[in-house]
Each structure stands twice: as structure tokens, then as C-alpha cells.
């Protein structure tokens, strides 16, 4: 059974930083592209970032230059380093394996 | 960027009815890269259809997907109580991997 378990959300002030983690089990992690998708309160889904199996990274325009996606295949882990956070980054963040399996989500709240 | 427009925004129907949800793209999409996701309140999304017409693991056969080019459809042949949720279409051929705004199925 594929499982993606997330951690690392919380409350942070504008301009602050936060790091999200996602640990995968039940898959050969290194062979898949992994994604981060977010959902602002009461809103729809927004793709944030992707990292391929060969570590090619892509970002939504809204986060480019502020967020960094990375992976550690030895630890079956995916990360999202979020810097210079803004109010509009407040959302539930999901990790997803090629959009076929999703983590449980973690809430990030940016507020003073 | 590809814009996906879903219609209608909300559908009210009774269990047992047939329903079709529409997703229209602002430019041609490869059918190989069109997905539908189901999301219930307080839960993570769940993949329903990938490649426009292939059911994901564990998805019952009352769900079907069709379409090509710019017009895609998700059909539920007989809606069950557990199917009431928000459905999002998504393209994943190249970034940014955009989602539609969602169609909410609610119980009449």
C-alpha cells in the first residue's frame, strides 16, 4: 500500500520560513516524479512544484524564487523549503506521487 | 498556461441519477495527460481518472472518462451517496500542471 506521510506545517509570520516533509512508503520512490499542491481555505487546488526522478525542478510562477523543492531518495523523502512567506501562501499543502497518490495534507498559516 | 474551465459549478442530484461533468481547456491537451480527482470535505484529493479515460486503482466502473482535444467529460452512470464531492480536472503534460476550478456534486 502506498503511503505519503507529511509533516512540518504550522503558523509563521510574513517573511518567515518553513520546511515541509513528505515520507513515502510502498513505492520505489526514486523512480517517480513528486509534486506539491496547495489549497487555500475554501478554494480549489493549485499546483506548486514538481521534482522529477532525475531531480529536474519546476515551480509555479507564484512561488518561483521563494520555494525550493528537493528529494532524498535514500530516505524516501520529499521536501519543500518555503522562504519569504506571504499571507497568500496560507493553505493546506499536499505532496503527491505523480498525482496518483496524495499525502494527508499539512496546514501552513502565514499571519502576524 | 493552460486554463481549464469546469461546468457547471454545482450540480444538485439524487442518488441513482446519471451525471456528466465538463472540463474545457484553453488549448489542445494530449488525452494522455488529463486527469480527474475527487475531493471530499476535510480529505486529500483522490485520483479517479487518468489519461482521460483510464480508471485509477479501486475506482468503481460507474465512473468513466472521455474526450479529446479541448473537451473532456467525467460521467458517473448511477450516483451513489459516497460520490457526492468536488471533482477537479487537471492537465499534467507539462508545467504548470493546472487544475480546473472544480464542480461540486451535492445531494438534492
The fraction of residues in strands of chain B falls at over 45%
Shape annotation of chain B: globular
Query: What is the global morphology of chain A?
Result: globular
- Give the C-alpha Rg of chain B: 13 Å
Number of helices of chain B: 0
Query: For the largest interface in this structure, which chains are involved and how many residues does each contribute?
Result: A-B, 20 and 20 residues
SSE order of chain A, one letter for each helix or strand? EEEEEEEEEEE
Could you give the order of the helices and strands of chain B?
Answer: EEEEEEEEE
For the terminal residues of chain A, how far apart are their CA atoms? 40 Å
Helix content of chain B: under 10%
Radius of gyration of chain A, Cα only, in angstroms? 13 Å
Number of distinct helices of chain A: 0
Can you give a write-up of this model?
The complex is a heterodimer of chains A (112) and B (108). In chain A, the strands form 2 sheets. In chain A, strands 2, 4, 5, 6, 9, 10 and 11 form a 7-stranded mixed sheet that branches. By secondary structure, chain A is an all-beta fold. Helices cover 0% and strands 52% of the residues of chain A. Chain A is globular. The mean pLDDT of chain B is 97. Helices cover 0% and strands 53% of the residues of chain B. Chain B is built from no helices and 9 strands. In chain B, strand 5 and strand 6 form a beta hairpin. Chain B is an all-beta fold. At the A-B interface, strand 5 and strand 10 of A face strand 4 and strand 5 of B.
Amino acid at each position: 500500500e502506498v503511503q505519503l506521510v507529511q509533516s512540518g506545517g504550522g503558523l509563521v509570520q510574513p517573511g518567515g520560513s518553513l520546511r515541509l516533509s513528505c515520507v513515502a512508503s510502498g513505492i520505489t520512490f526514486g523512480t517517480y516524479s513528486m509534486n506539491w499542491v496547495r489549497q487555500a481555505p475554501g478554494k480549489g487546488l493549485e499546483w506548486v512544484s514538481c521534482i522529477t526522478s532525475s531531480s529536474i525542478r519546476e515551480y509555479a510562477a507564484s512561488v518561483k524564487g521563494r520555494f525550493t523543492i528537493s528529494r532524498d531518495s535514500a530516505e524516501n523523502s520529499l521536501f519543500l523549503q518555503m522562504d519569504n512567506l506571504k499571507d497568500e501562501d496560507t493553505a493546506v499543502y499536499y505532496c503527491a506521487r505523480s498525482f496518483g497518490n496524495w499525502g494527508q495534507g499539512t496546514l501552513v498559516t502565514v499571519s502576524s | 498556461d493552460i486554463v481549464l474551465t469546469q461546468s457547471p459549478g454545482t450540480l444538485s442530484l439524487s442518488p441513482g441519477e446519471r451525471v456528466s461533468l465538463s472540463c474545457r481547456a484553453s488549448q489542445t491537451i494530449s488525452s494522455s495527460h488529463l486527469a480527474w480527482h475527487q475531493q471530499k470535505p476535510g480529505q486529500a484529493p483522490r485520483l479517479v481518472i487518468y489519461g482521460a479515460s483510464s480508471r485509477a486503482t479501486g475506482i468503481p466502473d460507474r465512473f468513466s472518462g472521455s474526450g479529446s482535444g479541448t473537451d473532456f467529460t467525467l460521467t458517473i452512470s448511477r450516483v451513489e451517496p459516497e460520490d457526492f464531492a468536488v471533482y477537479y480536472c487537471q492537465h499534467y503534460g507539462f508545467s504548470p500542471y493546472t487544475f480546473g476550478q472544480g464542480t461540486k456534486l451535492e445531494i438534492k
